[in-house]
């Protein structure tokens, strides 16, 4: 019979095993860093897309209409002669009217009904 039958007479190479372990650990670490960078970049893009992106045209138009109504004169009901005025002017006018009025109740007190 030959001496090569039944088992391997060569010892494992510790340098090759250590190299493989180091390679696997480095590959895992670098892959983790790459995945973390990818997810951070995706999160940044999602943030920019959802928070920082300019508003759509309908919202811009609605805001412009609201600003126009708040800061310019215009008609609410032209047939009945009802107009609106800029809010700054309306507040100044209200303050002036309140300062010029003497303190009095909004309406005459009403006596309660007896049962």
**Sequence of secondary-structure elements:** HHEEH
Largest sheet: 2 strands, antiparallel
Given the structure, what is the number of helices?
Answer: 3
What gross morphology would you assign? rod-shaped
Radius of gyration: 41 Å
Which strands sit side by side, in order, in the main sheet? 1-2
How many strands in all? 2
Q: Span between N and C termini?
A: 127 Å
The number of domains is: 2
What value does the average pLDDT take? 86
The level of helicity is 55-70%
**Helix-strand category:** mainly alpha
Runs in which pLDDT lies below 50 for 5 or more consecutive residues are: none
- Beta strand %: 5-15%
SSE layout and pairing:
Blueprint: H1 14-52, H2 57-71, E1 74-77, E2 82-84, H3 87-100
Antiparallel strand pairs: 1-2
């Amino acid at each position: 019979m030959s001496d090569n039958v039944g088992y391997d007479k060569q010892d494992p190479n510790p340098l090759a095993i250590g190299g493989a372990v180091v390679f696997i650990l480095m590959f895992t670490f670098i892959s983790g860093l790459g995945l973390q960078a990818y997810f951070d970049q995706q999160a940044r893009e999602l943030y920019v897309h959802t928070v920082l992106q300019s508003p759509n045209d309908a919202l811009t138009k609605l805001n412009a209409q609201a600003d126009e109504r708040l800061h310019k004169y215009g008609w609410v009901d032209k047939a009945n002669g009802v107009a609106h005025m800029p809010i700054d002017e309306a507040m100044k006018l209200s303050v002036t009217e309140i300062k010029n009025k003497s303190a009095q109740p909004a309406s005459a007190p009403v006596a309660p009904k007896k049962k």
